[in-house]
C-alpha cells in the first residue's frame, strides 16, 4: 500500500495568504482555540495543512455572524438538527439587521430630500397632517430623569437611531414665565409598532394631528449661547405672523449639527406644534 504523503506545515504569513486572511486574523482565531498551530522553539508558528478545513468551517460561521466564543461549541455539535437550529437563529438575526439597515437607508433618503428642499434656505414652514408620535422623556436639560420606567425601554430604542430622533419638548408656562424643557427621544408610532420597540406607561403618545412645522437649516448658535429660548421664540414669532397659535407643547426634532471653523454651531431640524 502506498504511504500517504505527509501534510505540509506553513509559516503564518504564507498560510494566511493561502487561506485569504491576515496573520492577525489567524492569531485572533488561535486565541479562541479555533485553530492550533505548532509553535517551534524559536517562537515561529507553523500551521498544518489539515487546519485549513476547520478554518473554512469557521469562515462559514463568521458569515452567519456567529461570535467567536460560540464557534467552538457549534463545530463540536453532534446533532445536525441542533446545529441548523443555531444557524436558523443567526439567519433570523440577519433578517432583523437587514430590515433595520433598509430603514436607515430610507431615513437617509428622506433627509436627502429635506436637504434638497432646504437648499439656499435658512428656514421654511408648512401646515401638514403629522402622524402619531411616541415621545420618551429622558432629561430636564441638566440631569437624567429618575424614573425607572424610562430605562426599562431606553436600550430598546437607541439601536434604532436615526429613525428614532433626539427630540425636545417645550411646554409654555401658564403664568407667562419661562417654558419647561424636556429632552427625550421621538419616533413615529407606526415605526415603533412595526419594529417592536418596547413601550410602557412613561411614554407620551401624540396622536396624528394638524401641525405647524418650521424647518430650519443652519440656524446659528454662537459659542456659549443657549439656543433653546432663541429657537422657541423664532418659532412662536413665525406662528404669530400667520395668525396661528399652538394648542400643544412644541416639539423640536434634531436632524444633525455642524460647526463652523470658529466653533459656531449650526442647527438643522424642525419644530412642530398642533394647531386648531
Provide a brief overview of the structure.
39% of the residues lie in helices and 28% in strands.
Total number of helical segments?
8
The low-pLDDT segments are none
Q: Please list the strands of the largest sheet in the order they lie side by side.
A: 4-9-11-10-6-7-5-8
Form type: elongated
* Order of helical and strand elements: EHHEEHHHEEHEEHEEHEE
What is the CA-atom radius of gyration, in angstroms?
28 Å
| Helical content class | 25-40%
Q: Which strand-content bin applies to the residues?
A: 25-35%
Most strands sheet: 8 strands, antiparallel
How far apart the termini lie comes to 95 Å
Report the mean per-residue pLDDT as an integer.
Answer: 92
Question: Count of DSSP E strands?
Answer: 11
Structural class: alpha+beta
Amino acid at each position: 500500500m502506498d504511504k500517504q504523503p505527509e501534510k505540509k506545515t506553513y509559516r503564518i504569513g504564507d498560510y494566511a495568504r493561502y487561506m485569504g486572511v491576515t496573520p492577525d486574523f489567524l492569531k485572533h482565531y488561535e486565541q479562541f482555540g479555533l485553530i492550533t498551530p505548532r509553535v517551534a522553539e524559536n517562537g515561529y508558528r507553523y500551521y498544518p495543512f489539515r487546519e485549513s478545513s476547520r478554518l473554512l468551517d469557521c469562515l462559514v460561521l463568521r458569515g452567519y455572524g456567529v461570535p467567536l466564543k460560540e464557534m467552538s461549541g457549534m463545530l463540536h455539535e453532534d446533532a445536525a438538527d441542533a446545529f441548523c437550529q443555531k444557524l436558523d437563529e443567526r439567519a433570523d438575526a440577519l433578517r432583523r439587521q437587514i430590515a433595520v439597515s433598509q430603514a436607515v437607508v430610507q431615513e437617509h433618503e428622506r433627509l436627502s430630500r429635506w436637504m434638497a428642499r432646504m437648499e439656499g434656505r435658512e428656514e421654511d414652514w408648512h401646515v401638514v397632517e403629522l402622524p402619531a408620535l411616541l415621545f420618551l422623556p429622558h432629561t430636564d436639560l441638566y440631569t437624567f430623569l429618575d424614573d425607572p420606567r424610562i430605562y426599562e425601554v431606553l436600550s430598546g430604542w437607541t439601536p434604532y437611531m436615526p429613525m428614532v430622533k433626539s427630540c425636545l419638548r417645550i411646554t409654555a408656562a401658564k403664568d407667562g414665565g419661562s417654558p419647561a424643557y424636556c429632552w427625550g427621544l421621538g419616533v413615529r408610532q407606526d415605526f415603533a409598532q412595526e419594529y417592536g420597540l418596547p413601550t410602557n406607561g412613561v411614554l407620551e403618545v401624540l396622536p396624528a394631528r394638524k401641525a405647524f412645522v418650521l424647518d430650519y437649516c443652519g440656524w446659528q448658535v454662537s459659542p456659549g449661547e443657549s439656543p433653546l429660548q432663541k429657537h422657541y421664540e423664532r418659532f412662536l414669532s413665525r406662528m404669530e405672523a400667520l395668525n396661528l397659535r399652538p394648542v400643544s407643547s412644541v416639539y423640536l426634532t434634531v436632524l444633525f449639527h455642524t460647526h463652523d471653523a470658529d466653533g459656531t454651531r449650526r442647527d438643522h431640524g424642525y419644530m412642530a406644534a398642533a394647531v386648531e
